[in-house]
Amino acid sequence: MKTDHDNNMVDYTFLGNSGLKVSNLCLGAMNFGKSTGTDFLSKAFGGPTQANEELSFQILDKYAELGGNFIDTADVYSFGKSEEIIGDWLMLREREKFVIATKVRSPMDLENINNVGLSRRHIIQSAENSIRRLKTDYIDLYQIHLWDDAVPIEETMRAMDDLIRSGKVRYFGVSNLTGWQLQKIVDIAKYKGLSPAISLQQNYNLMVRSAEVEAFKVCQNEGIGVIPYSPLAGGLLTGKFKRGEELDPTTSRVGYSKANNASFFDYPMDDKYWALIDELKSIAEAKNKTIPQVSLRWVLQKDIVAAPIIGATSVKQLESNMAAAKGWSLSQEEMKKLDDLSACKETYPYDLTYKFNFGRQNPYKK
Question: Of the residues 77, 171, 256, 273, which is catalytic?
């Protein structure tokens, strides 16, 4: 029997070991609003092509029209303006049809020493502020944006658990964690009877695959869904750059970040990069697709991935990227070529662990 979803440009998947279903492409709202500050956070989460409310609404409208239901933001994006734009848009929609994810950790008031981190105080206050800006009664997925060395993780998790028990938050997620940090959260949730993390939002693309070494192993073992951000590596996996070309800080996000010394990640444009771009171009031409679509498709076909986050600076760009979501796939041979060209070097002890466990996979082991 046909459903309304049959004509959508997306598929739907469960988010980790939970009953929450999301579209397999998530719309990132980091570029909604305008970061005008000169501090590091404003520069880091800003960009040369941020969208005003009118353009943000157009992008949100088209995303929903194409079947998308999963929207990701953070309180620190444009210091609350991104959440406010989404909230204004949600007022015109059926709230229950959308899964809204936001994050907490960054300072929202640089003059308040307690307005930062993952303390109970900051989490509870930040959740209430995000709910107010989003003009909703609850947050579907509340994520810690980064580990906080100053706060015992159990304090953080109990605050999240209290928010879930109160109904202000539905699910708990994490972002930017190492393997041991994620495993610690998993174990504390089990042994203390606290709400578990259902998702890991992590930088993951054909240029950054280090999360595969350990963090994604935890996700596989524990039923945690992966939400990759920056699947196009800040635009470097779109094929729009040429050898020897200077990155334009006024049109390129990665160029903007480098020019403002605000880049969190190092994306080397070396011989390995250009070989990867050549292969992406070859596959794209053979399949009559674009290089960004092939780059996104590679991420989508990884078993551990639930929903990559795509940003958009125009409706046209959104429609093009959404075309990666369903209806076609990369062959095993194409996936292997891209895997081989983008592989990261395994260091000790991971190289020994994986080498000597080859052929020792037990499908019944949990």
Answer: 77
